[in-house]
Design a protein that fits this description.
Na+/H+ antiporter like fold, mainly alpha
């Protein structure tokens, strides 16, 4: 049974990639995410939890270096522009959290601190703040459920209509880089050794990152592993033979679809709706305010649409989702910088959460 589950799970990205190439209106990432949501909420026990968890973790750890391998120095130089787009994202989160806190005298400082942490860094920061402030397990589960529900809707928007909308509001120019990516995506490598070399390089990077985690933390620490995968992926990209492999992007596409499907499958809408919903209105209001304020600040500061979207992704979702969104934007040149600012968000997110708690306490 396990073998059948694995075959079906690993076949899904192949089918979606085939549809993406054959059907003009199809978007493989949207289909993967949506299919995961549908199957996860209709037949939630079809895949074993451990299989899904392992597929989710392994797929994103392999996708990140594969997307980073083709990175050039010119891509890294864009990091300063992405940093300028990321600072308004942090400001928007902090301002929105404070406004909603002062609007509601009954607001719980711990919950607002968790919102600040998760939408500056990511889930790892939410949980870190929650544990440090002695939140109950029930509160942690509910806050993660709120985040999954609200940010999940935003993610669907980012994968569909939001890029077009934001490109009408903010500065946007079609770049030579994105046009070049679209041309190279359809090319198929003729030799299996290219796939093998890409995979071996990616697995080596992941292995080195896990080794770094054990060296630093004596265990597998999520933040250290993501940091290591990003760092070693950029270092390997210095080798021309690895950087030139077309199979890097093709394998990265496969793993990002597998990741998208598993993320969607984990979105248990029924369980979220059955949880305590009294704080959901405030949570949703804060989230909308964050996106609106970030968009407004980006407009005032002349930040380009794609850079704002990547910065928003970095702040709200964290490093694992950068590749998914840059792929949707056809802006693979923003992957390296996007991952770097997302890691920065992981670094500062917990501290900003604590600061919000101390201000409201």
């Amino acid at each position: 049974m396990i073998a059948i589950e694995l075959i079906i799970l690993l076949s899904i990205p192949f089918v979606l990639l085939h549809l993406d190439r054959r059907v003009s209106w199809a978007n493989s990432i949207i289909m993967s995410y949506a299919l995961g949501i549908v199957l996860g909420n209709t037949i939630p026990t079809f895949f074993r939890a451990e299989i899904l968890d392992n597929a989710m973790n392994i797929s994103i750890l392999l996708a990140i270096p594969l997307f980073l391998f083709p990175t050039s120095l010119s891509d890294l130089k864009r990091s300063d522009r992405l940093l300028k787009a990321f600072i308004p994202a942090i400001l928007a989160t902090t301002i929105a959290v404070l406004i909603w806190s002062f609007m509601d005298d009954g607001v719980v400082p711990e919950k607002m601190a968790m919102i600040e942490a998760v939408y500056t860094g990511g889930t790892i920061n939410l949980n870190a703040v929650a544990v440090s402030l002695k939140a109950t397990p029930e509160e942690i589960v509910i806050m993660n459920g709120y985040d999954m529900m609200v940010s999940g809707v935003y993610l669907l928007g980012l994968l569909s209509f939001i890029p077009g909308l934001f490109r009408m509001i903010l500065k946007y120019e079609a770049t030579e880089k994105s046009q070049e990516v679209e041309k190279t995506e359809v090319e198929t490598p003729k030799r299996l050794n290219q796939y093998f070399l890409s995979l071996v390089s990616a697995f080596s990077v992941v292995g080195a990152a896990i080794g770094l985690s054990f060296l630093v933390k004596s265990n597998i620490d999520e933040f250290v592993v993501i940091l290591g995968v990003s760092l070693f992926g950029l270092l390997v990209s210095r080798f021309e033979k690895i950087r030139a492999l077309r199979t890097n992007y093709q394998l990265a596409d496969y793993f990002i679809l597998l990741f998208s499907f598993t993320i969607g499958y984990h979105a248990n809408i029924g369980a979220i709706m059955d949880s305590e919903l009294s704080f959901l209105g405030v949570f949703f209001g804060v989230f909308l305010s964050i996106v609106f304020l970030h968009l407004l600040l980006s407009r005032l500061l002349g930040i380009h649409a794609d850079e704002m979207i990547v910065a928003s992704t970095a702040a709200i979702f964290g490093p694992p989702f950068i590749a998914m969104i840059t792929e949707r934007l056809s802006r693979r040149d923003l992957i390296a910088g996007g991952v770097l600012i997302a890691i920065l968000g992981n670094v500062v997110g917990t501290y900003l959460g604590w600061i919000i708690f101390w201000m409201l306490e």
